[in-house]
Design goal:
By secondary structure, this protein is α+β, with helices and mostly antiparallel strands. The protein contains one helix and three strands.
Length: 78
Amino acid sequence: MELSFKKISFQPLLETPFPISWGYLFRIEKFKIVINGTDISSNGELAEKWPAEKINQLRTVRKTYIDILKDNEDTTSG
């Protein structure tokens, strides 16, 4: 897996009542994923403009990755 992303952080500018929020936003700009012989990549193009074949490849890669996580005894949730 190769990723290129942009990170934006935010925090309160003034003292504010509870709850006070800090956070990070991550935007994946480019990626390449190869798993079990299936690969998919993006160079920043909008997913809404992807052809159906590429969307199906992403579904396959995502399902494969989720199945691997489910089968991995070291994976914990929560």
